[in-house]
């Protein structure tokens, strides 16, 4: 069936463009204002490089929209396998940046393969769950298969010393399973590792206490030993893994970044990442209602906040454009998520709808963690704000997900003819 280009949803593209422009404004302020004297030569070029990546991403959307929808389904598992190979290759021959071996050097460019892995993983999980014909007796089996598809790249990313990106993968488990129609009890089982992991960062005994209570509650509710066994394995296992990662895998500075949010002013943190969190909060507060003005933020232009073009770009927006500017950006992000949810709901075939859920999950986790760490609610784990933070790999991968959702929505009539 031929598809008219007028079926392409324009609002999604407009929201994407609005976010990209907001990010460019913040990047221009940090790289062309008084702060420029504190920046390295490479960071000073981030605005122009981001402009190039946005242009390439726009071209990428156009290319993705040309693919027949069946190609996306056929390519799901091969794309997933290819990204796993790239993740392994980055561990063996990758470029290390700030203690994280997550990049492959391609001439003058660096490719963060974990960003591409998110696209491959979303496609593979959507394809797997779209093969689920009935619910009865299949929920747990499909849930475990889908979780395995997500956990494998997550573990490879952890070996790269990139716990923040790994959390994005783990967070996809409950989101994609919920959207696929799996039972609430299975969803709760899949959410429990995230809760245990967060509590493990605060206190190992608290996390273990949660594991015991949750396991007992699920056993009482389900009256099945194997469900209780899985609950104990998931919660207790994650607690053990987090403790092992903090003590044996991560570098000391990475551990401090993770734990500093609990008390950034403490003696052990305030001269390092705790100082940065304090400065980020000062930037948020100094913006007030309307902001200090474009290229006029004291914290931004004094370069007091680290990674202003990447992880902490929201502090630039909050300081120079104030609460109103922050709410506008958050509103654009929320509108994009809601729009993608609607597009996914319009697609009756499970593959298209679950791909949309995966894209929403990736963006939502990034937004929640990024804004949380900028405001000091969550650990500083280095995740960019979608479509605003500088980063070519993230921009390309996140825009590719957007393009795939637009494609499946535009060709939703075609999807139905391929069956489940």
Overview of the structural elements:
With 420 residues, the protein is mostly helical. The protein has one domain (5-416). 72% of the residues lie in helices and 3% in strands. The protein has helices at 10-32, 41-44, 46-66, 69-74, 76-93, 113-130, 139-159, 163-179, 184-202, 204-222, 225-249, 252-259, 267-270, 273-286, 298-301, 313-346, 350-374, 392-410, 412-416, and strands at 95-97, 100-106, 109-112. A hairpin with a 2-residue loop joins strand 1 (95-97) and strand 2 (100-106). The model is unreliable at 1-6 (pLDDT under 50).
Summary?
With 420 residues, the protein is mainly alpha-helical. Helices cover 72% and strands 3% of the residues.
From the spread of the alpha carbons, the general shape counts as globular
Strand order of the largest sheet: 1-2-3
The run of helices and strands is: HHHHHEEEHHHHHHHHHHHHHH
How far apart the termini lie comes to 18 Å
| Average predicted confidence as pLDDT | 86
Largest sheet data: 3 strands, antiparallel
Instruction: Report strand %.
Output: under 5%
| Count of structural domains | 1
Question: How much helicity do the residues have?
Answer: over 70%
Number of strands: 3
Radius of gyration: 22 Å
Provide the low-confidence segments as ranges.
1-6
């Amino acid at each position: 069936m031929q598809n008219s280009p007028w079926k392409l949803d324009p609002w999604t593209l407009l929201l994407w463009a609005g976010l990209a422009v907001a990010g460019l404004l913040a990047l221009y302020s940090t790289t062309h204002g008084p702060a420029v004297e504190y920046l390295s030569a490479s960071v000073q070029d981030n605005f122009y490089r981001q402009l190039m990546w946005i242009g390439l991403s726009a071209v990428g959307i156009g290319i993705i929209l040309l693919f027949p929808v069946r190609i996306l389904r056929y390519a799901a598992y091969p794309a997933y396998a290819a990204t796993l190979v790239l993740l392994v290759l980055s561990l063996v021959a990758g470029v290390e940046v700030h203690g994280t071996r997550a990049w492959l050097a391609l001439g003058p460019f660096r490719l963060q393969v974990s960003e591409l892995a998110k696209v491959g993983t979303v496609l593979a999980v959507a394809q797997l769950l779209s093969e689920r014909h009935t619910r009865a007796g299949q929920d747990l089996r499909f849930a475990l298969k889908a979780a395995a598809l997500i956990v494998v790249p997550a573990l490879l990313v952890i070996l790269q010393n990139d716990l923040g990106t790994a959390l994005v993968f783990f967070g996809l488990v409950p989101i994609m399973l919920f959207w696929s129609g799996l039972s609430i009890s299975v969803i709760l089982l899949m959410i429990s590792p995230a809760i245990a992991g967060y509590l493990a960062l605060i206190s190992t005994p608290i996390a273990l206490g949660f594991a015991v209570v949750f396991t007992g509650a699920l056993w009482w509710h389900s009256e099945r030993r194997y469900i209780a066994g899985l609950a104990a394995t998931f919660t207790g296992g994650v607690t053990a893994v987090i403790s092992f990662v903090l003590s044996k895998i991560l570098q000391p500075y990475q551990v401090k970044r993770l734990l500093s949010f609990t008390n950034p002013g403490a003696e052990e943190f305030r001269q390092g990442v705790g100082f940065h969190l304090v400065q980020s909060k000062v930037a948020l507060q100094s913006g007030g209602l309307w902001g200090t003005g474009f290229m006029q933020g004291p914290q931004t232009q004094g370069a007091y906040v680290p990674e202003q073009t990447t992880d902490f770009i929201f502090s630039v927006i909050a300081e120079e454009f104030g609460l109103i500017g922050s709410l506008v950006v958050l509103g654009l992000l929320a509108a994009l998520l809601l729009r993608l949810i609607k597009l996914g709901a319009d697609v009756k075939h499970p593959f298209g709808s679950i791909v949309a859920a995966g894209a929403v999950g990736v963006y939502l986790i990034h937004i929640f963690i990024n804004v949380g760490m900028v405001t000091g609610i969550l650990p500083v784990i280095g995740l960019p704000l979608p479509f605003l933070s500088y980063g070519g790999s993230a921009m390309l991968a996140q825009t590719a997900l957007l393009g795939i959702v637009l494609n499946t929505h535009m060709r939703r009539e075609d999807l139905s003819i391929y069956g489940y």
